[in-house]
Amino acid sequence: MSTFKAKVFVTLKPSILDPQGRTVERALSHLDHGNVSGVRVGKYIELTLSGSRAEVEAQLKDITENVLSNPVMEDARWELSEQQGEELVGA
Amino acid sequence: MSTFKAKVFVTLKPSILDPQGRTVERALSHLDHGNVSGVRVGKYIELTLSGSRAEVEAQLKDITENVLSNPVMEDARWELSEQQGEELVGA
Amino acid sequence: MKTAVIQFPGSNCDGDALHAAQLLLDQGAQFVWHTEAGLPQGTELVFLPGGFSYGDHLRSGAIAARSPIMQAVKAHAERGGFVLGVCNGFQVLTESGLLPGALSRNRDLHFLCRPVHLRVENTGTAFTGTYTKGQVIEVPIAHGEGNYYADPETVARLEGEGQVVFRYVDNPNGSLNDIAGIVSERGNVLGMMPHPERAVEALLGSEDGRGLFDSLKGALVSR
Amino acid sequence: MTQAATLRDRAGTFGLSTEEFDLLVTRIGREPNALEAAIVGAMWSEHCGYKNSRPLFRHFPTTGPQVLQGPGENAGVVDIGDGWGVAFKMESHNHPSAVEPVQGAATGVGGILRDIFAMGARPFAVLDSLRFGNPDSPRTRFLLNGVVEGIAHYGNAIGVPTVGGEVTFHPSYQENPLVNVMALGLLRHEDLAKGTMGEVGNTIVYVGSKTGRDGLGGAVFASADLSNASQADRPAVQVGDPFMEKLLLEATLEAIQAGVVAGVQDMGAAGLVSSTCEMAYRAGLGITMDLDLVPTREDGMVPMELCLSESQERMILVPVPGKEQELLDLLAKWELDVVTIGQVEGHTNYRLTWRGEVVCDLPVDLLNEAPKYTREGIESEEIRAKRERDLSGVPVPGDLGAVLTDLLAHPTIASKRPIYQRFDHQVMTNTVVVPGAADAAVMRVKGSGMGVAATSDCNPRFVYLDPYAGAAAAVAEAARNLACVGATPLAITDNLNFGNPHRPEVYYQLERAVHGIADACRHLNTPVTGGNVSLYNQYTEGDERVAIHPTPTIGMVGVLPDVTKRATMDLKGEGHTLYLIGE
Ligand SMILES: Nc1ncnc2c1ncn2[C@@H]1O[C@H](COP(=O)(O)OP(=O)(O)O)[C@@H](O)[C@H]1O
């Protein structure tokens, strides 16, 4: 049994309005950052899972798709890395 | 002048309680994912910037530290990659 | 007391702030749009109202804190002028560095609208002179991100210097040390999550917020 | 010919029956193109065209000295005195909320608020009437939590207090919850605005968010049966942005008050098409619009998408002739997308161009005059048997105290505080009677001594057993709730949530409920100034279609000449006497 650190990225589907991104983009342009475009704001979730790699991978896929994101309007992807000992803490 | 795609990750400082992370963790444990721990919910922001690499790097650092995150309670890091032609769209 | 109520896009307690200011401070209280470079001549109180400036996008108060008028508000505060930030106004104050700390999501993650009891901790400020120390007042809250946070040294300093002005009797949102409102070191800038401007008429349930406005008026006279 | 035959074959995908498609061909004397068929389908849908319910509406009393604006506009308006009027209306967002509760409910709030400020009124209160299935099921918890979150998200952010509502639970709503939202707005009589194109030569201004592909075909979707197929419809989620709407609200009201607006309407169901079609119809004129000018959020959008997208937070404004620039300048301050996309013409057609070609050219009348269906209702034998059941044999429980605590513990009856405390019910500092203090809310009218009271009510179980008496009782309950806070009832809006009207037992419920409402309103002198219909609220269970309990939600508005005289239901002190009045 190992310990894994997962990072999950949840973004709104490209076709869905991102009011937050739109507002941030406009605010940046008022702050003299007019060269910034395509701002999208999503979620970034870190979690730790223990188990065998195969189990954890299947589980993470399930969690990502069914709990951490709303497939009706969001896309999600994840990264998984095995952790040794104390390294777990910190990003 | 080039076009760059930036990804910014904003997380609560480790010392700060993350009620959202805790709620997700509790929900997961009710859903038979008791092996999940250390859930932290942060923000993931994508943006596109145009300019020279040096300019854009300085600008992104500024935006990340001074607008996209609040140093009182958040940590932030960013990744920058240059984009070619049509690749910009999507991702 | 000449009052300027700052309007940001998305502010929604701006009208309530103006109403209370006109009722209790000065008929001539007026709105100031966020793109203005300066405050009206002779402004004595800047009122940063509640609401959802910029839709609370990114972080509540974050974008408003970076708008042009805030330079003038900072200069006003540095001159010793009074600044009152309520709810979103408090968030704007912390985001702009006029007050220390930050406000994050409520402990239970939900928006909460209800009357709460506040203990007046320091009556030596311009905002609290007409209250008595330890007095418990009823003032409504209406926020989703009112959970006050600052690092331990800052909190210790706030406590030590008497900058914690209002404390929740029954903490609704998880704020450190039950902090509901704080003043700046000089005492001229107050930020609080509860809405005193919603508690100035008996018809609406409580008049306990009047003391704050009465105090301000008194403070101006004794200056 | 082959292409037309194909179109006819798939008339259903545009929400048209084959008969309706043939009717269309006869009326225009040619085959429509696909865009035209889709536009007609949307305009003739129940949501926009009320084809099944409109024939029943004539039973409603709609006039009275207090009525400033009756049915037919974005919202009804009543006179409350001193030059003040109250605009109010209720609307459902049932199907979107079943698919995505947070955004479904949020955009429901956004939509009804636009109806209110399109009348020139400043929204000042929201009430929400919610129905869910079994309170213990995870799905109900998911839906309830999401819907409350959505209403809070939108209403709190835009700064309109949510001052009341109701929440009831019954298994018939298990898959198909009801989310009915009522909004009230305050206006000076002289600011009353209309959804009209005005006169020939006027320009048509699009303002608000850009148009995306979201919510596409939502009008058709909202009228279709909710079944497992709705899983596939899921990308049809629209995301609302209360911040954008707040800007739109302020900009629209500022423009109306500045006297530069001749006509205004929000883009709701069937988006750009339904708003501009209705405005043209009210003016009795044709229009031409250039679809290339529609601000888009995505590249490569086609006319069908531009026309029918239900992207939120968009309005159509028609400037007063000569004040075009003034209007555009005023809107610019609010940083909204603003573009002049067309003009009002002397002809009577609805004409759209795209890339230099006419892509739609249909009579405005045809679009706005959906075929009407008067169906025959037959009472369900099963329900009649339930109603007529002899109850004399039902034993009286021995321990009535225990029954009382059981009743109080039922989620339908228990305190709704955990819900309403998530809504800002005090913003605007007008709420004199807050949720929980009485069964109706009271808001003061600043600058006058008056108060406005509002409530929403319906007991669906009663309506199920006896649609006529149950619906009449909903009106009576609303009136009692207003009386109990000290208000005089003025008028109602209704939201008729029923099953599939093609089923005789459902049509029976609809028809009888309409009569019940109409008669009660006549007795109480509370005309109907507007409303909304949501049909096809049912789902497939095995092979069977299960309709929800018929739910004609009544929203009623009243006035208190002196708001300080309002009453609340808490007992005020020891030694006071309690009276029971009535029968
Ligand atoms: N969904 C809701 N949103 C806002 N307020 C609500 C909601 N549901 C109920 N309320 C408020 O809670 C109080 C009690 O409502 P309810 O339980 O329906 O009372 P009753 O059954 O006596 O009519 C009322 O003030 C009502 O307006």
UniProtKB/TrEMBL annotation, chains A, B:
It holds the Pfam family PurS. Its main location: cytoplasm. It comes from the Bacteria. Pathway: Purine metabolism; IMP biosynthesis via de novo pathway; 5-amino-1-(5-phospho-D-ribosyl)imidazole from N(2)-formyl-N(1)-(5-phospho-D-ribosyl)glycinamide: step 1/2. Its EC number is 6.3.5.3. Part of the phosphoribosylformylglycinamidine synthase complex involved in the purines biosynthetic pathway. Catalyzes the ATP-dependent conversion of formylglycinamide ribonucleotide (FGAR) and glutamine to yield formylglycinamidine ribonucleotide (FGAM) and glutamate. The FGAM synthase complex is composed of three subunits. PurQ produces an ammonia molecule by converting glutamine to glutamate. PurL transfers the ammonia molecule to FGAR to form FGAM in an ATP-dependent manner. Part of the FGAM synthase complex composed of 1 PurL, 1 PurQ and 2 PurS subunits. This is Phosphoribosylformylglycinamidine synthase subunit PurS. It comes from Deinococcus aquaticus. The gene is purS.
TrEMBL record, chain C:
InterPro entries: Class_I_gatase-like, PRibForGlyAmidine_synth_PurQ. Its main location: cytoplasm. It is found in: Cytoplasm. Pathway: Purine metabolism; IMP biosynthesis via de novo pathway; 5-amino-1-(5-phospho-D-ribosyl)imidazole from N(2)-formyl-N(1)-(5-phospho-D-ribosyl)glycinamide: step 1/2. It catalyses: N(2)-formyl-N(1)-(5-phospho-beta-D-ribosyl)glycinamide + L-glutamine + ATP + H2O = 2-formamido-N(1)-(5-O-phospho-beta-D-ribosyl)acetamidine + L-glutamate + ADP + phosphate + H(+); L-glutamine + H2O = L-glutamate + NH4(+). Keywords: ATP-binding, Cytoplasm, Glutamine amidotransferase, Hydrolase, Ligase, Nucleotide-binding, Purine biosynthesis. The keyword Chaperone does not apply. Its EC number is 6.3.5.3, 3.5.1.2. It comes from the Bacteria. The keyword Glycoprotein does not apply. The active site is at C87, H195, E197. It holds the Pfam family GATase_5. NCBIfam families: FGAM_synth_I, PRK03619.1. PANTHER family: PHOSPHORIBOSYLFORMYLGLYCINAMIDINE SYNTHASE SUBUNIT PURQ. Part of the FGAM synthase complex composed of 1 PurL, 1 PurQ and 2 PurS subunits. Part of the phosphoribosylformylglycinamidine synthase complex involved in the purines biosynthetic pathway. Catalyzes the ATP-dependent conversion of formylglycinamide ribonucleotide (FGAR) and glutamine to yield formylglycinamidine ribonucleotide (FGAM) and glutamate. The FGAM synthase complex is composed of three subunits. PurQ produces an ammonia molecule by converting glutamine to glutamate. PurL transfers the ammonia molecule to FGAR to form FGAM in an ATP-dependent manner. This is Phosphoribosylformylglycinamidine synthase subunit PurQ. It comes from Deinococcus actinosclerus. The gene is purQ.
